[in-house]
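Archive entry: two folds, one per protein. Generate the first.
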Amino acid sequence: MEYFEIFLQYQGWLYLLLLSLLEVVLGIDNVIFISIITDKMKNPALKNRARSLGLTLALIIRFVLLGMLSLLIHLIEPIYAPWFGEFNYEDLVLLVGGLFLIYKSTLEMHRSVKHEEEKTSKNELTFQSVVTQIVLVDIVFSFDSVISAIGMTNGMEKELNADPIAIVYLSVLISMLVMIRFSGIISDFIQKNPTIKTIALSFLLMIGVFLVAEAFGHNIPKGYIYFGFGFSMFVELLNMRIRRNKAQ
């Protein structure tokens, strides 16, 4: 029960709200990737199942990482640095994940530009293939999410005189429940609007570039790319409204 003593103070609830919002924002890229990759599945039931399973696995991976905080601390210690300077396991995960996102985003953008529709069963992704790709990306994004959550709670224990780990767990749970609830809506919206899909793929491509840069020690604030994505979405929604009015 000592872990929940932090909720006896109003600051504990405030931190829970702020951290939950942060986790939702950090999970947007995860939801977008899952929405795009599951779009290749023709069976609606399997598509919904893969989407829900992917986000559920993301939640489980985050909880596992939170339960391995002592190991995560060791992951940021240098292991190999002849060419890259200080390089560690966390950097390796970010590098592999970033390169994977760049590859998948570029491939999907190429298919969209070439108008290559996935009409044949040969091109349709299997359920196992989709889940495997989702798990790989979940691991990368979970690292980012957990490390950000831990960083935000630094100093919270001294300020509130209570262990903040309960807030971290609850914020992760709340954010994933929110994403599971709205993932279907986001997926359908992206699928029905090709221009939105292009913006989403560009966003994932930039996230991949940022992850690779971060792996090599270049820490670029992700707020820039989230702001750019939000502004691009706002402009495109205005364009969609204009096109709809002209059509009418």
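Generate the second and append.
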Amino acid sequence: MKARIVLLIAMVILAGRPALVVGGETETLLVIEPNKENPRNSEGDIIELKDGRLCLIYTRFTGGSGDHAAADLAMRISGDDGMNWSDDRIVAQRPGGLNVMSVSLLRLASGQIALFYLRKTSREDCRPLMCISTDETATWSKSTVCITDKVGH
């Protein structure tokens, strides 16, 4: 399963949708089509939860399709290896300014899950944040700014 998760992560980052390679064939697991209220979806990551479910968190744009448009982080869960996915649940809202984006998920040695992402409050201020889930993504801690001494990109 670990090789499959790595492949899924790579496909989300490179192609914008999770896929699975089975017997040399690529099988798309999820397509999140843009629409009027959600004109772009980008950068995401997938992690396998302890019970075998998959958790996808990705950037869901709502204020346009440009890099500086309003966006939140949305989460979906799959209990059947990516064949079916839950509806979106927003896990990080933009706190004003522009957006939140560029998700990375990491299972810590403690067993907790860390969520890293960027908070872009202006074109000059884009900083990495981190929050932790101690209950397999059911809830997340308050986000902490990872770099506090400088404002920039």
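Annotation attached to the second fold: The chain is about 10% helix and 45% strand. The longest strand covers residues 113-122.
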